[in-house]
Amino acid sequence: MRLDPVTLEIVGNRLSALTEEMCLTLQRTSRSLYVKETADFCCAFAGLDGGFVAYPRGIGVSGFVGLNLLEAVRRAEPLEPGDVIITNDPYRSGGLATHLTDIQVIEPYFHEGAVVGYGWAFIHCSDIGGRVPSSLSPINDEIYQEGLQIPPVKLVRAGEPSRDVEALIAANSRTPEANLGDFRAMLAALRTGRERLAGVIAQHGVDTVLAAQDDLVAYTAGKARAALSRLDDGTYRFVDYLDDDAVSSIPVRLSVTATLDAGNLHLDFTGTDPQVAAAFNIATLGKPHAWITTRVLALICTLDPGIALNSGLIQPISVTTPEGSLVNPVRPAAVGVRHASASRVNDAVGGALGLAAPEILPAASSGLVVPVVVAELQNVQVLEPMVGGTGARDGADGVDGRDSGISNLSNNPVETVETEIGVEILRYGLRTDSGGAGRWRGGCGLELTFRVLEDGSKLLARGLERLCFRPWGVRGGGPGEPTELIVNPGTPRERRHLKIDVLPLERGDVVTLLTSGAGGYGDPYTRDPAAVLRDVERGVVSREAAAREYGVWLNDLANDLADGLAVDEAATAAARLIDRREGFGFGPERQAWESVFDIGTVDRLVAGLFRLPPPARGPRRTALYNAVLRELPGDFPRTAPTPDQLDTARRTLTKEIVALEGAV
Amino acid sequence: MTTAVPMMARIGIDVGGTFTDLVAAVPERGLVVHHKEPSTPADPSRAVADGLAAILAQADLRPEEIGGITHGTTIGLNAIIQRRGARIALVVTEGYRDILEIGRSRMPSSFDLYAGKEEPLVPRDRIIEISARLSPGGVPVSSPDAAELDRVAARLRATGADAAAVLVLHGYTDPAFEEDVAAGLRDRLPELPLMASATVWPEVREYERALVACLNAYIQPLMRDYFGRLESRVRALGVPAPIFISASNGGSMSLRSAAERPIETVLSGPAAGVAAAARLGMGAIVTFDMGGTSSDIAVTVNGSPELATHTTVGGLPLIVPVVAVSAIGAGGGSVVWVDGQSVLKVGPESAGAEPGPVAYGRGGDRPAVTDCYLVTGMIDPATFLGGRMRLDADAAAKSLTDIATRLSGHVDTRLGAGAGPGAGLSAEDGAAGAAHRAAAGALRVATAGMATELQKIMAQRGLDPRRFTLVPFGGAGPTHAAMLAEEVGITHIVVPPTAATFCALGAAGADLRRDFARSLRRRLDPASAARLSGVLAELSDQAQAWLTEQSAAGAGFTAVRSGRGFGARLSHSADMRYAGQAYELRVALDPARLDVEAISEAFHAEHERLYGFRDQHAPIELGTARLGVVGPVAELPSATVPPGTGTPAPHGRRQVLLAGAWHAADVHLRSALGVGDAFDGPAIVEQDDTTVVVPPGWSGNVDGTGNLHLRRSRKG
Fold first, then answer.
1. CA distance to partner chain A, nearest, from residue B455 (Å)
2. Is residue B633 predicted with pLDDT exceeding 80?
């Protein structure tokens, strides 16, 4: 390091405060739905290599600290003072933008004629055009359907706003006014950053600020390696699945092989399915990109809570992401709903690292973020951003009804939501019995039930997941309950839905979304009966589930409060005389699925697909799976196959793979 | 303001962990008397009463000569933090049983796999749903019938709760509806104190409003008990004067008001010092309260402290207005340490009072900021806290030498290298030199951290710290004030006389103050402007009524007694935003001009001041109407300080490491400084409860009321 340890600490604090101030400016001036509703924005300060040197803590999207601006900067060069670059194009910005609704701006900060760093801001804008309102839909199958692609161009040239660029963007959005407000908010944030940076340079000198850029990153990288070196070295593999790709019912597999070596971590995604003809692809461009490393960053920051946030966090991480796979798709793959896949990557990485350090990593969290959107003719509102709970871990239950795994979202006061759109929210609460059973219980999912008060309303709920494959438990812990989406529950008009695109609703319809619960940790029969009793008293576990899942029997107390309960010690002891449960608790759906599509066989399948030319992979995969699924029950894997069906399906699968391998 | 009756004496009381400080201000005699009484944490009212008896004797006052007693208490705050309040229940609109579990959904930290959420104030099994709901427009969607009220009352009884709160969705649109529901339950459970959320605080946002009501219910029994004991002890002394309780907004309220709305008093501790500083009449000030674990700042622009409506208490959000106090970093007990990558860190961990800094000799083995003051000569081991605590300077130096060693290769060649402060130290050799450099480095880190936060906080408000006067208090505030001022460009510091007197005197002189709010949530147009005007008029009536009620209790406060509107100061404002924005701006309004044009211009101007642009064409939304009422009390006499000689003779002289070099600094005793005394830095002023550091380039002088002014005269 070039700076002394006092100056480094001081300048580091100054720069991170600068980024927080940028965020505050942006947050308070923006008019975007997503800034307001879900804190989907951020600002930061990057060094000359395009990596972030300082990143805000506790405000904005935490996960993007590993992004890099350099490719976007290169494409817009030459730069002069007062320029601001804009882009939203994942493929032309080197993965800086991760879907088209994330509008990125970059300002080169100059000192005496030379660039000394870059200010960065992004906002998830309300709409950037494309096929559907709000631009995002799971069933978009090319990026062209997802809106206007803006390669890195100058939004402001030497201090003069480019009216041409503004006009072009405005003409391609359903919400031009709101977008213009977003641009202003971001420019205000960049101005704040520029002014504060000038202050830091005035106080400490430009050489110190430049030296700090390298030192701060090296400092964090050293700490990150120190944190990761606390996990046992070795190679660990874990596989998880997206329920389906929304355009077919075939699950999408994510495979992670994590290799830990003295504080360095390699994540190999070989074995992950090819990119899909839907919006779930993550454009990482082959880098250890934010959306596939979030869990590792969270782990590092958990083990070293004081670590400064900057690009040093990802320095210990390297990746192998096969080109054309879900985690490194090629243009024009659609990427709009990449956060659903990122949730599952999170789970897979967490599962693999959990094999290395089971006492550190929790079970799977609920693993979904669903902004429940209702659209009226002239009005689009997020009712609530729905999440579930967090996974249990060694020594602690999961958190009920909150999960910051992908982003730390605020919900909306029902009193403001109902003022802004014609719905009546009938219930917004915890979902009883949804958390995975365990010595430590998984967090409960949530229920949102609302009645539609206006004709012509539509429901959008991208990010629906874990409708089939449950959030898994570990070390004997059970899985959480799967997600459900029901319209008019308990009536003759009841309809159950899986992933939806745009669902028309009628006045008076009642919609219920139940989000998945999180996984449990450890054998539930070893859970303290008093803790089970408390869960029953609080109503997050039913009395029936206490007996069924935990072997804890409860008696009514005759002479106490009306609903007083006590543990029936004898019955509980008797019920608990069974073998201990161990290992992962995946739930019946995944067991059924893997009874046909076991990991080793699918490895062969995926490898075979990747030997085909990219355009042939998707169709071949669909045909192959459909051939096998024809031998299985209609709602497989929710219904397990009979031994005969299993046998036939396995034989068909083998035959198909041999044919695939022969064809290559 | 003239008064018909002679002003009676007033007593201000500041209850601290160790001492309860009392001040008697006797305007007729121009007298201020101070008394220190050991605190009695188990029942603070005992020390209050004992101290009261003592100060009456000391000031030669008869009990009936006292016009008012003002004091604050932390009983409510502690109960919330330690979750030791009443066993309460919550009755809530059907479907919202989990309102407290879900909260605002965010986790305390997003990058922490182990983050948990705060402990809900009411456990889920004591939350009961009721069929009662309003529409956003204030129309009943469902109303509980007798059977429903019977059912809920039975469930409520079964919880065994001591108190309960009621929340009806959209209750803020029609507080009477929610109050009816509460009344129906009260009929069935006459013993159970029940409060309706919109009666306590009619602001939109169901979770935050529920919390206000729950917190109020949660601490009310404890507070009522305490106030009862306090009152009977005071009466037992024969003192008939009304008792006022310090409020979180920097004002005070009658004992009865405080018993009804104790939630409005919970943050009075931090507010009291700020309010006292605001009364110094120094214009735009930043208070800097540096205690053992952290330091806090607050901003006062026009004589009243800035209020915040988004704070937290015990990990829970609180929306009632409180003096905006922000933590900015280290306190005297913050630990100095070196991390695994050899970077020097200060805090956030604190050694607290036990074991405390190494120099305390109570078993602390990690150096704290106070150890750095000691090693650099800023404080004297023999005279710290008026000599009440001897400090072990050698132990402090040794622990800082260890820090220097852990900075490995950096220590001799790099720590303090370059042109920055500390450069002059590189010549010093040996262990002592290493300790000095480590201490100076740690102080630089701590100061820069505070300065960064201070600048961030002020920038958010569109304020330039260089135009402000810094008013330090707390054990370490005056010691660190000049270092902080240098870093942020502040050139004027005012150190009030002893802090204990200062806070107690602040309490004695606290204005009556209450804040009112009512959510509107409408697009700004002529109709909503008229509605705003109507609501503000209503709130203004409520405010006047409240003040009258206080005055009924309150003899002795000239302002309260003088008739004509009680000299009340009303401040009108509204929270506004451009349609679609997530955050509202609080905009002060002129009650005489509440037309659309004036209201919008006030908002545009404030938006432009803060964020550098306005959007003349965007629709504006009116959020919550707000009204503050202040019943000012007349000026109190200041603590009297005798005249000085102008050029005070130093009490001594010692070597102090300031701004990177050793200086021979004159040491003055605060008690020996008189009005008009002036001196130049480098200097040290020692007082009973703190040490004031005056760096080179600064000068000091004592004004007519005993305040010590430090001014930066030249580049140090």
1. 9
2. no
Would B84-219 and B512-631 be classified into the same CATH topology?
no
What is the per-residue pLDDT for A664? 59
Do A426 and A557 lie in a common domain?
Answer: no
Mean pLDDT of A469-484: 98
pLDDT, tens only, A292-320: 999 999 999 999 988 999 999 999 999 99
Whether A546 and A424 map to the same domain: the answer is no
Pairing state of beta strands A565-567 and B9-15?
unpaired
On whether any CB of chain B is under 8 Å from the CB of A188, the answer is yes
Q: Which fold has domain B84-219?
A: Rossmann fold (3.40.50)
Residue A352 lies in a domain: no
Q: What is the pLDDT of residue B423?
A: 42
A41 and A181 assigned to the same domain = yes
- What is the pTM (predicted TM-score) of this model? 0.90
Q: Which of B154, B340, B453 sits opposite A226 (nearest CB)?
A: B340
Instruction: Identify all chain B residues contacting A193, using CB atoms and an 8 Å cutoff.
Output: none
How many angstroms separate the CA of residue B106 from the nearest CA in chain A?
A: 5
Domain boundary pick from A178, A203, A223: A223
**What is the residue extent of each domain of chain B?**
84-219, 330-449, 512-631
More reliable by pLDDT, B176 or B411: B176
A402 and A464 share one domain? yes
The beta-carbon neighbor of A428 closest among B96, B136, B416 is B96
- pLDDT at position B5, please? 45
Question: Is A29 in CB contact (< 8 Å) with chain B?
Answer: yes
- Domain check: are A20 and A139 in the same one? yes
Q: What are the φ and ψ backbone dihedral angles of B326, each rounded to 5 degrees?
A: -120, 135
- Label residue B715 by pLDDT band (50, 70, 90): low
* Residues A306, B345: C-beta atoms closer than 8 Å: yes
- Partners of B327 in the β-ladder: B296
Long-range contacts of A253-259 (CB under 8 A, 24+ apart): A253/A602, A253/A606, A254/A326, A254/A327, A254/A341, A254/A344, A254/A345, A254/A348, A255/A348, A255/A599, A255/A603, A255/A606, A256/A345, A256/A348, A256/A349, A256/A351, A256/A352, A257/A352, A258/A349, A258/A352, A258/A353, A258/A356, A259/A234, A259/A235
Amino acid sitting at position B596? V
Residues with Cβ within 8 Å of B137's Cβ and at least 6 positions away in sequence, in order, are B173
Q: Do A22 and A117 fall within a single domain?
A: yes
Which chain B residue has its CA at the smallest distance from A296's CA?
B111
Considering the domain boundaries, does residue A252 fall inside one? Answer: no
Residue A345 C-beta-side C-alpha neighbours within 13 Å: 33
In a domain, A254, yes or no: no
Distance from CA of B498 to the nearest CA of A (A): 32
Residue A329, domain member (yes or no): no
Tell which of A1, A3, A4 to mutate to test the B interface (max B CBs under 10 Å).
A4
Q: What is the mean pLDDT of residues B380-394?
A: 85
**Structural class in CATH, domain B512-631:** alpha beta
For residue A518, list chain B residues with Cβ-Cβ distance below 8 A: none
Together in a domain, A615 and A496 = no
Reply yes or no on whether the pLDDT at A523 is more than 80.
Answer: yes
Give the model's pLDDT for residue A177: 83
For chain A, how many structural domains are there in total? 4
> Residue A219 is nearest to which of B208, B341, B521, comparing CB atoms?
B341
Across A68-72, A362-366, B20-24, B533-537, least confident range: B20-24
Q: Quick check: A71 pLDDT over 70?
A: yes
Domain extent, residue A607, equals 588-663
Q: Are residues A198 and A116 in the same domain?
A: yes
Q: How large is the ipTM?
A: 0.91
The DSSP-derived string for B564-623 is GGGG-EEEEEEEEEETT-SSPEEEEE-TT--SHHHHHHHHHHHHHHHHS---TTS-EEEE
